[in-house]
Write a structure and sequence with these properties.
Elements: E1 7-8, E2 18-22, E3 27-28, E4 35-36, E5 41-44, E6 58-60, E7 72-74, E8 79-84, E9 107-110, E10 117-119, H1 121-124, E11 129-132, E12 135-140, E13 164-167, E14 173-175, H2 176-190, H3 206-209, H4 218-233, H5 242-251
Antiparallel strand pairs: 1-2, 2-5, 3-4, 5-6, 7-8, 8-9, 9-10, 11-12, 12-13, 13-14
């Protein structure tokens, strides 16, 4: 398990140390330029100017520059990754191999056997294995299963790029791109109106109340698993807002 310091100094930021705490509202990360999902912890500045305006400097935990120039090895792709603390060259389109979204800021890069990988820092640190009750998901580059969210197979192609979480039972798979898109859209639409309430599998959540007497419906299983995996990879606690449960059911 990777440990993170409570305070850090980032070269180029003029207002002293950044402190690690939960994001109070959605903001783009100063490093990777990706959105910070509420209530994920991040580093941000407590400085206020003479008008009382708070500094808007936010930084994902995963985007903190490594202390040395040494690469870290990512076993999934059998590759040494180097951290690049700069934006992609102007005019060059760079796509993250894990989620399929554009790379706009800091990133990791690796070149195993002549093939280049570009990854958002958060995508480079995705969990290899996720447990959801008695169902275990493994992170893979591709699979022959079909993602129930987008109805595409879990494999790279010319027009589609995403890693995928695949259940060991062989019944479920979820694209990283689908989960990231969902989390970003929820944050954009609902992030400023959060009322945190407990949500646990098996509790009296909205999904639970809709279950029939014959047991959990297949779609409801998929939605609960989808929510659980999102919670894990984006650092959102296992208790979720009940509006998120109903919201994700509507957009499915």
């Amino acid at each position: 398990m990777e440990l993170h310091l409570k305070e850090i100094d980032v070269p180029g930021h003029p207002h002293g140390p950044l402190r690690l705490k939960a994001a109070e509202e959605p903001y783009n990360c100063w490093g990777c330029k990706e959105i910070i999902v509420v209530p994920k912890s991040c580093y941000h500045c407590d400085h206020k100017d003479h008008k009382g305006q708070k500094c808007k400097f936010y930084l994902h935990e995963e985007c903190v520059p490594p202390p040395t120039d040494r690469p870290f090895y990512l076993g999934l792709i059998k590759c040494d990754l180097f951290f690049h603390r700069e934006d992609p060259p102007r005019g060059k389109t760079m796509v993250c191999d894990a989620c399929g979204k554009a790379v706009k800021g800091w990133f990791y890069k690796g070149d195993p056997k002549g093939k280049s990988y570009h990854l958002h820092p958060c995508c480079a640190k995705l969990d290899f294995k996720i447990n959801q009750g008695n169902i275990v998901f493994d992170l893979k580059e591709r699979t022959t299963l079909v993602c129930p969210k987008c109805k595409n197979k879990g494999c790279h192609s010319k027009d589609f790029r995403s890693w995928v979480y695949v259940s060991r039972c062989g019944n479920y798979c979820f694209h990283v791109s689908c989960m990231k898109e969902t989390a970003d859209k929820w944050t954009e639409e609902e992030g400023n109106n959060l009322t945190l309430t407990p949500y646990e599998a098996g509790s009296s959540s909205e999904v639970q109340r809709e279950r029939g007497k014959q047991g959990i419906k297949t779609l409801e299983i998929v939605i609960e698993l989808f929510i659980g995996v999102i919670c894990t990879i984006f650092g959102i606690p296992t208790w979720l807002v009940s509006p998120f449960v109903s919201w994700i059911s509507k957009i499915w």
